[in-house]
Design goal:
16 helices, binds glutamine
Length: 486
C-alpha cells in the first residue's frame, strides 16, 4: 500500500519496522503536495527544506531507539497556529507578511513528539466562515468534487488530509470549524473539551469558544495525535490542570450498554433527507452493537446560532483590536496621521466577513445595546449549558448529524451570510457549552461525504473517540478515498 493511504498508526508501525524512513515519507508527501496542491489550494506555505531536516532528526531518533509513536510522522498545521520562523497568516491580508517569533504550544508539543511539519494550511480569514471562501489566499476545493467547498474554517486541513497530501492535520473549532469540514470531506475530526488543549499561540477569534483539535483519517489517529497535543499549559490561563488519559488505550472500550441520546431537535426541518437517512443507518449500527438509544430534547438548542452570532463577534471585536498597523501585520502606504494609519490599515487589511463580525460585535457591546444583546446572549448560553447538563444526567453521549447537508458548490452561499451561518446549527451548541465533540464519516450522498456527530460530557474525549472507533470497526466509510487521489 502506498504510504499516503496509510493511517498515522500504520505509518508509525512502518517507521518502527524500517519499511520506510521519515525522510522518504516526507519526500513522498512533499511530492504529492507539489502535484495536488495547485488544484486544491489547501496549503498557504510548504516547508520543504525544514520538514526534511526534521525528518532526518526523526530518523536519527528512531535509529537511536528514542522514538515515540509519532516520531517521524508528517503533519500540517492550520495557519492559525504560530510557527517560529514560518509565515503565519490566519488566512488574512492583515497577517500575509507575519513571520511568527515563537511556536504555539500545539506546534511545540507535536514537534517534541517528533512529528514533521509539512506546512501551513489555508483557512477562512481569522477562522470566520464555513466554506473556506473568506480566505485572502482564495478558496480551497473539496477533493471529492472540486466544484464544491471543503467546509470551513479548517478547510485547508480537511482538503489536505482527504486528498492524502498529509496524513493528519491540526484545526480549530469555535463554532464547528473542525467537525463541519471533517464531515464535508469524509474525515474524523475532534474538538476536545474547552481547556483541554492550550490556546497559547493560536490566533484568537472568540476566546471563550476557540479550541484546537485534529482532523484525521480515523478515530484511532485522532486519539493518537490528540493525546500528544492535550494537557495543562501555564501560558494559557484557561487551560485545565488535569491529567491526560491515554486516548489510544481507552478507545477500545466497547459500546455495549452505552446510553446514546438522540437529540430530537437535530432531526427536524432543515436536515436534508438523504443526510438524515445516512445518520439513521449509523444509529442502527449502534443498536446492533448493543448501545441503548433514547430520544432526548434540548429545547434551547434552537437558540444556539443567534446566541453564537452575538457572543463570537463580541469577543472577536475585542481580540482583533490588536491589529492596528503599528505592531505587526499589514500597514497601509503613506499614512497621513495616526488615525489614518489605524483606519486604512484595518480597512485594507481585513476582508468583508471579518469587518461584518467586528461591526456586529462592537454594536452588541456598545452602551445601550449591551444588556439587550450581549447580556441576553450570555443568559441563553447558560440555558443551553443547562440543557446539555440535564441530557448528560441521562445518557453517556449524544449522537446526531454534523451538518444539515453535504458540501455545497463554491459561491452558492457567499452572498447570503445567514444561510452560511446556518451550516453550523448542529455544531455550535458544543462550543457554547465547552463540550468535546467529534464528526466521523457515515455515508455518501451524490458522491459527497456525510458526517455523524458524537458529543460527550466535559473531558469525556475517550468516550466520544471510543464510540466513533467502534463504529469504524464495523464500517468502511472512513477508508474511502476521493477518486483521483488514490
Ligand atoms: N462557521 C462558524 C463561523 O463562521 C464557525 C467558525 C469556527 O468554528 N472557527 O464563525
Amino acid at each position: 500500500m502506498s504510504p499516503h493511504l496509510k493511517s498515522v498508526a500504520e505509518l508509525s508501525r512502518g517507521l518502527a519496522a524500517r519499511e520506510f524512513s521519515s525522510v522518504e515519507l516526507t519526500r513522498h508527501f512533499l511530492a504529492r503536495i507539489e502535484a495536488g496542491n495547485p488544484r486544491l489550494n489547501a496549503f498557504v506555505t510548504v516547508c520543504a527544506e525544514r520538514s526534511l531536516a526534521e525528518a532526518a532528526r526523526a530518523d536519527a531518533a528512531i535509529a537511536a531507539g528514542g522514538a515515540g509513536p509519532l516520531t517521524g510522522v508528517p503533519l500540517a498545521h492550520k495557519d492559525i497556529f504560530c510557527t517560529e520562523g514560518v509565515l503565519t497568516t490566519c488566512g488574512s491580508r492583515m497577517l500575509a507578511n507575519f513571520v511568527s517569533p515563537y511556536d504555539a504550544t500545539v506546534v511545540s508539543r507535536l514537534a517534541a513528539a517528533g512529528m514533521v511539519t509539512l506546512g501551513k494550511l489555508n483557512m477562512d480569514e481569522f477562522a470566520m466562515g464555513s466554506s473556506n471562501e473568506t480566505s485572502f489566499f482564495g478558496p480551497v476545493r473539496n477533493p471529492w468534487n472540486e466544484a464544491f467547498v471543503p467546509g470551513g474554517s479548517s478547510g485547508g486541513s480537511a482538503a489536505a488530509v482527504a486528498a492524502r497530501l498529509a496524513p493528519v492535520a491540526t484545526g480549530t473549532d469555535t463554532g464547528g470549524s473542525i467537525r463541519q469540514p471533517a464531515a464535508l470531506t469524509g474525515l474524523t475530526g475532534i474538538k476536545p473539551t474547552y481547556g483541554r488543549v492550550s490556546r497559547y499561540g493560536m490566533i484568537a477569534f472568540a476566546s471563550s469558544l476557540d479550541q484546537a483539535g485534529v482532523l484525521a483519517l480515523s478515530a484511532e489517529d485522532a486519539a493518537l495525535v490528540l493525546e500528544a497535543m492535550a494537557g495543562f499549559d501555564e501560558r494559557d490561563s484557561t487551560s485545565v490542570d488535569a491529567p491526560v488519559p491515554s486516548y489510544r488505550a481507552e478507545i477500545e472500550r466497547p459500546v455495549r450498554g452505552l446510553k446514546v441520546g438522540i437529540i430530537r431537535e437535530f432531526f427536524g426541518e432543515g436536515l436534508e433527507a438523504r443526510t438524515g437517512a445516512a445518520v439513521q443507518a449509523a444509529l442502527d449500527v449502534y443498536r446492533r452493537l448493543g448501545a441503548e438509544l433514547v430520544e432526548v430534547s434540548l429545547p434551547n438548542l434552537a437558540l444556539s446560532v443567534p446566541t453564537y452570532y452575538v457572543v463570537a463577534p463580541a469577543e472577536c471585536s475585542s481580540n482583533l483590536s490588536r491589529f492596528d498597523g503599528v505592531r505587526f501585520g499589514y500597514r497601509c502606504e503613506d499614512p497621513r496621521d495616526l488615525l489614518d494609519l489605524y483606519t486604512r490599515s484595518r480597512g485594507e487589511g481585513f476582508g468583508p466577513e471579518v469587518k461584518r463580525r467586528i461591526m456586529t460585535g462592537t454594536y452588541v457591546l456598545s452602551a445601550g445595546y449591551y444588556d439587550a444583546y450581549y447580556l441576553k446572549a450570555q443568559k441563553v448560553r447558560s440555558l443551553i449549558n443547562e440543557d446539555f447538563r440535564r441530557a448528560f444526567a441521562e445518557v453517556d453521549v449524544l449522537i446526531g448529524p454534523t451538518a444539515p447537508t453535504p458540501a455545497f458548490e463554491l459561491g452558492a452561499k457567499m452572498d447570503d451570510p445567514i444561510t452560511m451561518y446556518l451550516n453550523d446549527i448542529y455544531t455550535i451548541g458544543a462550543n457554547l457549552a465547552g463540550l468535546p465533540a467529534l464528526s466521523a464519516p457515515c455515508g455518501l450522498v451524490d458522491g459527497l461525504p456525510v458526517g455523524l456527530q458524537v458529543i460527550g460530557p466535559h473531558f469525556a474525549e475517550s468516550r466520544v473517540l471510543a464510540a466513533a472507533h467502534a463504529y469504524q470497526r464495523e464500517t468502511d466509510w472512513h477508508l474511502k478515498v476521493p477518486a483521483g487521489w488514490e
